[in-house]
UniProtKB/TrEMBL annotation:
Keyword Hydrolase: yes
Lineage start: Bacteria, Pseudomonadati, Pseudomonadota, Gammaproteobacteria, Chromatiales
Protein name as annotated: Trypsin-like serine protease
Coiled-coil ranges from the UniProt annotation: none
InterPro entries: Chloro_Bact_Ser_Proteases, Peptidase_S1_PA, Peptidase_S1C
GO biological process: proteolysis
PANTHER family recorded: PEPTIDASE S12, PROTEASE DO-LIKE 8, CHLOROPLASTIC
A GO molecular-function descriptor: serine-type endopeptidase activity
Phosphoprotein in keyword set: no
Keywords: Hydrolase, Protease
């Protein structure tokens, strides 16, 4: 039986000044470390596996009269391509309300989903159901059974400044939970993924395929962004990643669930 779920947020926050001044929050070795921060944050970060059925786009050659004529002359049949493509994809998310089992992730990860599985850091897995999505912010809310894990608090993204330290946590390439450190490289970036995503946070913390939906946290352990996109010549990280600001995530959470964050 699952006990009462901690929903407070104040005790999840660390003193960022202690980390910056060096030594106030040492790791096991006695040197300045982000390990104390990650010990509090990472249990609420989840891996998400999605089985989906996506309508397949017909290859343009199949509608080309010259190509069809060529096949006919050669006595070759026109290839039959199944109209539906089955996909198995992986991404990330994080718990925003453990008592209600709410998990926030990216909406694009769930496209055509027929099965969604959420796996916690301790390897427990749950079938999740989609409560709703906001395509304008590329955010979605899933629900799993209540868990006794401290949810991640949403910080105030309007207080971010270029140069602030941030940590991206997620499941890149399906490798498992991974944390990368960087800074806020720019604010208010637009035109990424078309204009529909609005203004985003740019960071050089490594964001790779599979990080989608994972949190971008500040040194106080607050989510200041939700990782959603990257720019790279091969779809890999080149130091330019983007996250949806947490204040937009807070508005989406309220709109999709009719409730805000759990109170301390």
């Amino acid at each position: 039986m699952i006990g009462p779920s901690p929903t407070g947020t104040d005790s999840a926050r660390l003193d960022p000044n202690g980390l910056i001044k060096g030594g106030a929050i040492p790791g096991a070795s006695g040197y300045p470390s982000l390990a104390p921060l990650l010990r509090q944050v990472t249990p609420a970060v989840v891996n998400i596996t999605v089985d989906s059925r996506i309508p397949r786009e017909e290859h343009p050659f199949l509608n080309d009269p010259d190509f069809r004529h060529f096949l006919d002359r050669m006595g070759l049949p026109i290839p039959e391509i199944p109209p539906i493509e089955r996909r198995h994809s992986q991404g990330s998310g994080f718990i925003v309300d453990s008592a209600r089992g709410y998990v926030m992730t990216n909406e694009h990860l769930l496209k055509g989903a027929t099965r969604i599985q959420v796996t916690l850091k301790d390897q427990r897995s749950f079938e999740a159901r989609r409560l709703g999505a906001d395509s304008g912010s590329d955010l979605a809310i899933l629900q799993i059974p209540p868990v006794a894990i401290r949810p991640l608090p949403l910080g105030d993204s309007d207080r971010l400044e270029v140069g602030d330290f941030v940590v991206a946590i997620g499941n890149p390439f399906g490798l498992g939970q991974t944390a990368t450190l960087g800074i806020v490289s720019a604010l208010g970036r637009s035109g990424v993924g078309g204009s529909r995503l609005g203004k985003l946070i740019q960071t050089d913390a490594s964001i790779n395929p599979g990080n989608s939906g994972g949190p971008l946290v500040n040194l106080a352990g607050e989510v200041v962004g939700i990782n959603t996109a990257l720019i790279g010549p091969t779809g890999g990280n080149v130091g330019i990643g983007f996250a949806v600001p947490s204040n937009r995530a807070r508005a989406a959470l309220r709109a999709l669930t009719g409730q805000g964050e759990p109170r301390p």
